[in-house]
Amino acid sequence: MEGFFESDSAGLEGTAECSLPELVQKSIMKCDIEIRALLCNQILVTGGTSQVPGFIDRLSIELSRLMPTVLSPSSSYEKRFAPWIGGSILASLPAFHKLWIIKKEVERHGISIIEKKSNLNSNLS
């Protein structure tokens, strides 16, 4: 679990060796200033890692150090299934195919294709 909270061992390609809390902070800071406070108070942790004892408490502590306005991240009662439910909802959106990234695009553009395609404001309209 420590690997998620240490900058030099997060191990996520293309993240410039940021910890998970730093990645959350950077993601929020890339959003419009008007919605940052709202996002800070709407962090929902899901998936298998959210079930690790103490993970959500530790994430809350680390996020509070980086962004004092963050309320404690929450966890869904059905957190085991939340990624599947979210994925199902996302996949059912009519414009979702615009966000797909195929192998050929990654080979042509590298990891920067993720940032290009993740501009949700223009891709889902």
Automatic annotation (TrEMBL):
Name the chain's protein.
Answer: Brg1-associated factor b
